Amino acid sequence: MNIIVCMKQVYDLKDLKLKAGEEFTPQGLDRRVNPFDVFALEAALTVKDQNPQTKVIVLSMGAEHTEKCLIEGLSMGADKAYRLNSSGFLDTVATSRRLAQAIHKIEKAEGMADIIITGIQSTDSGNGIVACMLSRILSRTLVSSAAEISLTGNPSKLEIVKRCPDGFEKTEHDFPLIISATKLNHEVRYPSFPRIRQANQAKINIIEPSPSKKAMSSTELIRIAKPGRRSRNVIVNDDVQAGTQILLRMLQEDNIFTR
């Protein structure tokens, strides 16, 4: 069995504080593995615990610094690592298309992936739709919000416990699958010192993106800033017409119509 886990390196925003209207700049911020992608890798490794013949492959897209993310994946227990070479901003559509191209290349080298797992979202953009788009592009079944996955007695099926608003739901699905993982029902394992040493010496396979207009970003990132409006709550007790005029004036004061 082959499992591909998509991992993203994000900025650590834990201690970031911005004033209203202040522009975000990444200078001085540390990078870390997206926490939801750590859940995705842990889910894959639980399958490997059940079936030691399982090969877990980690894939990340980015420049050379992204390899730290892959080394962490290897130190947790992944077998191989691939980095899709990329730099600069890409929107979610372009990201998904490039990841799909990379997955096809990995499958040519390693064999068909029975499971592809991503985190349910990233802590930077928070779009949460990469798994959905991979499902569409690769024409494979998507199961979202997985909190636990395990093999069944049937070698062609996977049991998944999904996190739902009112509890959990247990389902079974045929391979191949694409899964988005959320917070798991068990703790994430810690890397052992021997595996950390091995991971730092392991080979990182590099994939160059295929030239394709479809894989180019159709949007341009201009700036990221905290909304300029100060936090305030206003209760308007006037009639509808007067209240509408007050609302329009507030929006004009906040320059909503000129952004």
Labels describing this entry:
9-stranded mixed sheet; alpha/beta; globular; 259 residues; two-stranded antiparallel sheet; Rossmann fold
What secondary-structure arrangement, pairings included, does this model have?
Blueprint: E1 2-6, E2 9-11, E3 31-33, H1 35-50, E4 55-62, H2 67-76, E5 80-85, H3 92-110, E6 115-119, H4 130-138, E7 141-151, E8 157-164, E9 167-174, E10 177-181, H5 193-201, E11 205-207, H6 240-253
Parallel strand pairs: 1-4, 1-6, 4-5, 5-11, 6-10, 7-10
Antiparallel strand pairs: 2-3, 7-8, 8-9
Helix pairs in contact: 2-5, 3-4
What does this structure look like?
The mean pLDDT is 89. This protein has 2 domains: 2-215, Rossmann fold; 229-259. Strands 9-8-7-10-6-1-4-5-11 form a 9-stranded mixed β-sheet, sandwiched between helices. The chain is globular and about 70 Å long. A hairpin with a 2-residue loop joins β8 (157-164) and β9. With 259 residues, it is α/β, with parallel strands linked by helices. α2 crosses α5 and α3 (92-110) crosses α4 (130-138). The N and C termini lie far apart (51 Å). It has helices at 35-50, 67-76, 92-110, 130-138, 193-201, 240-253, and strands spanning 2-6, 9-11, 31-33, 55-62, 80-85, 115-119, 141-151, 157-164, 167-174, 177-181, 205-207.
